[in-house]
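Repro:
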Amino acid sequence: MARTRRELLAGAGQALLAAGTLPAARAADTAMLPAKLSPLPLTALRLRPSDYARAVEVNRRALLQLEPDRLLHNFRKYAGLTPKGAIYGGWESDTIAGHTLGHYLTALVLTWQQTRDPEMRRRADYIVSELAEAQAKRGSGYVGALGRKRKDGTIVDGEEIFPEIMQGQIKSGGFDLNGSWSPLYTVHKLFAGLLDVHAGWGSSQALQVTLGLAGYFEKVFAALDDAQMQQMLGCEYGGLNESFAELYARTRDARWMVVAKRLYDDRVLDPLKARQDKLANFHANTQVPKLIGLARIHELTGDAGDATAARFFWERVTQHHSYVIGGNADREYFSAPDSIAQHITDQTCEHCNTYNMLKLTSHLFAWQPNGALFDYYERAHLNHVMAAQNPETGGFTYMTPLMSGAERQYSQPNEDAFWCCIGSGLESHAKHGEAAFWQGEGALLVNLYIPAEIDWQAQKAKLVLDTAYPFEGTATLTLDQLARGGRFAIALRVPGWAEGKAVVTVNGRPAGASFDRGYAIVARRWKAGDTLAITLPMALRLEATPGDDSMVAVLRGPMVLAGDLGPTSTPWHAADPALVGADLLAAFTPAAEPAVYETRGVVRPGDLRFAPFYRQYARRSAVYFRRFSEAQWREEQAAFLAEQARLKDVAARSVDVMHLGEMQPERDHDLRSDISYPVSYRGRQGRDARSGGWFDFTMKVKEGPLLLQATYWGGERDRSFDILVDGVKLATQTLNDKEQPGKFYDVTYPLPEALTKGKKSVRVRFVPHDRSSAGPVFGVVLFTARP
């Protein structure tokens, strides 16, 4: 029988985590986990050969390909200085410009710490000096590259929005603030990068630039009353609360904590403090950094409510809103709890979300160490973060799709993409050793089995962790050098999926370990040359999705395995594979390669090869499978295959798809609007336009007969609107409470070939009739007509 991730991840300990209590040790020995812990610094680690070490090196080369002067273009231009490099395209030529530079600074610091490449430090110091020059030229403390799009479409220096905001002129949406795309999110990335340079090697110039920027925004926020502040915070602001809290930690100037606490979104955070899960239909990555900020504020102030919100959010996201690879969100948004099986799409698992969830996990672990926290960390780090980098090119995914047959789309070197997930990707792959080893109260904890050389200054020891994990189950820690002998504890994480079957030895003999909160702890007098080894069972298992036992994934140890559906160069239009039988795992046979299996007779429509999901960067995968008994399959086969065929047929005929109400699709399709708003209903995102307004967007077309299909909700109040294509009315649509009540439904409109002849794209516009509204429209698809 398949177990749910909740059962495996949580166990007895995790169920208690949200309440702030933890289980007692499971052995009579007095060795216990330390109460206070911190990760070993990256400077104390050198990664040994592994997929992780390769990822760091590939990422280091990607950092070297980027040109600091090009990233600094707008910082200098808007300060009245001559740019030294041409501006990059994509997001860096939009009003969110500058966010990449903040990520880049952090990645440079982390890579310098992980590898000691002097070029990383040189570049970071150069960028800080350039920012200091631009800040001095402005004279206000502000420094930035973000833009502001005026009504005529021109993009100008984004600083001009802040005097408006101070005067109470606030036009705030989910991602737009007075014509600028998530400006405070961009400010946060710069803040974080500067703080990381300061922490990395004590750069006083980085701290001074940060203080100038902080003072500028302190004045902006001080001009707003509480209601205006909440109106402004309706636009994504990243983890700016964390940055101000961290600035307080560095300077102990109380004014920065005052600002940190004001950066508090009542609508999202109050329910979490009350332990209420109201996350459905919230943009996921907008929220995670807010909780990281609360976690940092709690660490500095002891505010119990902030800790409650952070713990509760982590528990709900990891156990009720996450996919098997540890990522979350469909098309960037949370769905209802335990509804993962309904949201296995080509738009799952934005990388930024997981990047931030791992940061939050480390905060919680430092408060109360529990192996269940790093069971999640390992799952997401191995199966999602590692899958988000193409190790051949250094490119990154935005989403990591889990829909069967979907292609992972990686950024290309030097292309003008610069998504948020490129920035977080540059950081993630600069720090693979960051959370692997922790220390506290004279003890060393091994949380991630990543091959590494460790310089443990607290015990004047040098250790080496050798392992082929997760392809093999054994990891060996050797005390290579020990300046002074003595008794201390080393704790090895025993993952929940091992179900207590770990074997722990010292110098090849039973170690007599104690067990506490998911760790095997060996406390003894150590000497140079001693070896401590752990062997974990690496059996296959099935794991059901939260809320639906019929939808399962295959795992081996911490690793998600996926059915190999062929190279990405070959289109895949077959039905989603299913698992049929009583003893499914018995039909999996190990292949010659590590962690690779062949199936016999249990996969429909045909046998598959299963391999580690994260390594399938150039392959199409099947991660989730509907599970049937033989009898159920006979009953369901016809309907199942017919529905799969219908969905694949629509997908195969699609020319372009527009997900309305969602940030990136609307950007990609150049959505324009007036008196129009994103909406969310029954788990679907959409958009409407009110009387006097409209919205339109670009869609690709091709030669031949085409159909335009729009999705509506049945049971709307009466409303009517026109649909135009390149200014020509295609149809008038009327919605009312009698049409398809209680469900979403599609309306298809034939597109005259005269409207598309000789064109590569058209603009589709929705215009409400007088005193009516258009939509909501929950998506538009343009596809070819059947012959």
